[in-house]
Amino acid sequence: MDDIEMLHAVRPQPDAPSHAAYTAARAALLERAGSPSPTARRRTPWPRARWILIPAVATAIAAALVIVPGRVGDSRPPIMSSRDVLLVAADTAERTPEGAGTYWHITITKEGAATEEYWYRRDGHFWIKGKGLKGEGKLLEWPMKPQPFAVGPLRMTFEELRSLPADEDALYTRLRSAVRGSGVRSSGGPITTAEQDGLAVEALISLISEAPVSPQVRAAAYRALAVRPGVVDLGETDGGRRLQVPVFSKKGTMIVDPDTGRIRETSVWAPLTGGMAQDTDGMRTIDAEWTDQLPTE
Fold first, then answer.
1. Are the C-beta atoms of 129 and 139 separated by less than 8 Å?
2. CB 265 within 8 A of CB 199
3. What pLDDT does residue 143 have?
4. 74 Cβ contact partners less than 8 Å away, ≥ 6 residues apart
5. What is the mean pLDDT of residues 51-78?
6. Can you give the pLDDT at residue 144?
7. Where residue 35 falls among pLDDT bands split at 50, 70, 90?
8. Residue 97 to residues 60, 90, 167, 261: CA-CA distances in angstroms?
9. Of 61, 238, 256, 279, which is least surrounded by CB within 10 A?
10. Helix (H, G, I), strand (E, B) or coil at 245
11. Burial letters for 205-232: b for 16+ Cβ neighbours within 10 Å, e otherwise?
């Protein structure tokens, strides 16, 4: 008889786990598997102590581990709709650091077209540069006095932008109210309720893609857009998901990257010099970030 056999002979083997112990252990593990990832909640320090695991319970837990479906990290569920796209992008945007700088720098590009650049300072001064803009490619302060920021059809100071609510319902209500009180008119007269909604959607797109708002407000804009009727997921494309959005005059298109929380391309945007622009034969790429530098020329 070898050493292992001698140990088995002198130490009785534990009985098989009872059905109640097995059921309780499996239920605990299933509850654990369905709970949020440990990284998403605050950890409570465990007291330092020695624990003795009862053999029957250990056996039941081991058996339950075999049959509980596995989870892979914090992998998100598959994206199935435009709402999914926008809500995932909102979560990403909310977690993305805002950055810092003196100027909010916006670059608008399109293949085969001149690049437009804007530098907006918190006091309302801004500079433009690009062929086709005033200055014809040279850096130009425009229009030599403080101006509000273009948010779709609306104009807001930096302080107004920073005071926007981070709740999606309150944000949309404020934007739509501002549109209704702005006096915007169509060629046929006062705008309709549907046109007011379309202009409010344009303002949401501007907050997501262009405006120097906080990550929380950008996330709220995504969430407000997610529940607007008429937003349609057109499927995967290079750089993210293509969405159709109901804007003022017609349907706009944008490509949202849920992994970065940014709009990669859009057919609708608001130049800081005023008005709304819509590209009917292509898409524009908009990059926006804080910087401390103006170009030298």
1. yes
2. no
3. 86
4. 37, 39, 40
5. 44
6. 84
7. very low
8. 45, 13, 19, 11
9. 238
10. strand
11. bbbbbbbbbebbbbbbbbbbbbebeebe
